[in-house]
């Protein structure tokens, strides 16, 4: 460990940002013209457009279209340094951040700290489910899920028994939020449209897609009307929606769920399981909360002040998926707006000597929620305005392409969507064995390691940091 914390040359205010998701990237960009130096630390080399991960998982988009090099995203900004590293410690009293950077560990001093490390998948205390039911939070997750889906269809072609084929062609998605709904709709479209003429020994439309959730409706944040509309559309596409049901077991060959009203258990034989039922904030939040005497919530989110600081630390900000304030949802707009807000108040402090007690409170502007249910069909809720169908789909396309980083990514993504609208073919269906088995192999290697602290690169890669 470096004895003297590293800082940029000169004496300018040093801002350290942990995480290069929406919150971290937008904060860094808004500090471009400020009289500060910025160090952004991220455990991957890319900024990820997470809302489109399901399209990588189902072969609509390639990884390059939703993931941009952090360095390229911030190129031309001469007051920022990009560090690829895994933050292992934060000391809010010493104002230092320690990061493992592959072969060595470095410690950075800061004047202001922005923690935007995101969130990973939560299995609600059943972490052993993860081996058989990956979440969808990273590029690795998306590529693994794609490999699992495609491999299931390929193995069904050579299945020796009807029971084996049925198990292979049963896809279970746990969690009926936007990710679960969008995944279910896309897998149904793959079975009924994209793969309709690709196999000789079975009819792909025989595939069974099951969407399970413990709540009484799909898409709870969208309200009952849109939730019912989305459910009807999914069922038209052949998706079986199971509500008021909690998953109690996941193993290699099945999923078991319990009806919350009758307590009756049902087991579904299935090879492919996907988990989208909950999130767990980066553990860095709790690390900070413990130091400042604030109690983190069960999901790891940290209660923050009106200016998004934590406890009595006026220079430590927690934003995006990691913070808890006013029941704000874990969506991209919250991360973007909190990142922009924190950049603004740091600039005001540095350039106009605005004291912490004079800061304006953060106010969230709700730009709505939206989800694609099927091709040409989306549900959109903006305040009291509800839009469905083709118009909703166009709105979804426009909003999502506008937030992609880079003109090339915007252009290529629009071309991909246009091609899929006209043709059933999907052009990103290639898979590899490493995609299929890499995550579980790393988990097993981590379990075998005698000194886990010496192998931080084998940790779960969920989250932005």
Describe the structure in brief.
Belongs to the NADH dehydrogenase family. A hairpin with a 2-residue loop joins strand 14 (245-251) and strand 15.
CATH T-level fold name of one domain: FAD/NAD(P)-binding domain
Strand order of the largest sheet: 5-2-1-9-21-20
- Indicate the CATH class of one domain: Alpha Beta
- Category by helix and strand content: alpha/beta
- Average of the residue pLDDT scores: 92
Main sheet summary? 6 strands, mixed
Radius of gyration, taken over Cα atoms and rounded to an integer in Å? 23 Å
Q: What is the tally of beta strands?
A: 25
Count every helix, treating DSSP H or I runs of 4 or more residues as helices: 13
Per CATH, which architecture of one domain? 3-Layer(bba) Sandwich
InterPro entries: FAD/NAD-bd_sf, FAD/NAD-binding_dom, NDH-2
Keywords: FAD, Flavoprotein, Membrane, NAD, Oxidoreductase, Transmembrane, Transmembrane helix
EC number: 1.6.5.9
Protein name: NADH:ubiquinone reductase (non-electrogenic)
């Amino acid at each position: 460990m470096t004895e003297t914390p590293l800082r940029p040359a000169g004496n300018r205010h040093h801002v350290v940002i942990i995480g290069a998701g929406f919150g971290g990237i937008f904060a860094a960009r808004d500090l471009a013209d400020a009289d500060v130096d910025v160090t952004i630390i991220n455990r991957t080399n890319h900024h990820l457009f997470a809302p489109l991960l399901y399209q990588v998982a189902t072969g609509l988009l390639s990884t390059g279209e939703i993931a941009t090099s952090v360095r390229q995203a911030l190129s031309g900004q001469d007051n920022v340094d990009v560090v690829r590293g895994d933050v292992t410690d934060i000391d809010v009293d010493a104002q230092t951040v320690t990061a493992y950077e592959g072969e060595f560990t470095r410690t950075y001093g800061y004047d202001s700290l922005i923690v935007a490390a995101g969130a990973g998948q939560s299995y609600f205390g059943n972490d052993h489910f993860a081996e058989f039911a990956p979440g969808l939070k990273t590029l690795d997750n998306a590529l693994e899920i794609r490999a699992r889906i495609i491999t299931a269809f390929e193995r069904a072609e050579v299945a020796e028994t009807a029971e084996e084929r049925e198990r292979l062609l049963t896809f279970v998605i746990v969690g009926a939020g936007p990710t679960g709904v969008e995944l279910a709709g896309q897998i149904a479209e793959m079975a009924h449209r994209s793969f309709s003429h690709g196999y000789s020994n079975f009819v792909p439309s025989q595939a069974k897609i099951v969407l399970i959730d413990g709540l009484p409706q799909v898409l709870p944040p969208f309200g009952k009307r849109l939730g019912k509309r989305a459910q009807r559309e999914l069922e038209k596409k052949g998706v079986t929606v199971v509500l008021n049901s909690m998953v109690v077991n996941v193993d290699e060959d099945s999923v078991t769920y319990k009806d919350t009203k009758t307590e009756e258990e049902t087991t579904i034989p299935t090879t492919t399981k996907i988990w989208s039922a909950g999130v767990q904030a980066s553990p860095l939040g709790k690390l900070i909360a413990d130091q400042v005497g604030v109690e983190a919530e069960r999901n790891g989110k940290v209660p923050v002040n009106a200016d998004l600081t934590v406890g009595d630390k006026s220079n430590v900000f927690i934003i995006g998926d990691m913070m808890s304030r006013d029941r704000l949802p874990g969506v991209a707009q919250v991360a973007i707006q909190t990142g922009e807000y924190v950049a603004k108040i740091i600039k005001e402090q540095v350039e106009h000597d605005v004291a912490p007690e004079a800061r304006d409170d953060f106010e969230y502007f709700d730009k709505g929620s939206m989800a694609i249910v099927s091709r040409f069909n989306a549900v959109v809720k903006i305040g009291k305005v509800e839009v469905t169908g083709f118009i909703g789909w166009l709105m979804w396309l426009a909003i999502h392409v506008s937030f992609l980083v880079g003109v090339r990514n915007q252009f290529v993504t629009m071309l991909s969507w246009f091609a899929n609208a006209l043709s059933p073919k999907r052009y990103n269906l290639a898979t590899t064995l490493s995609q299929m088995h890499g995550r579980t192999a790393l988990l097993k290697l981590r379990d075998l390691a005698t000194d886990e602290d010496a192998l931080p690169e084998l940790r779960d890669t969920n989250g932005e940091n």
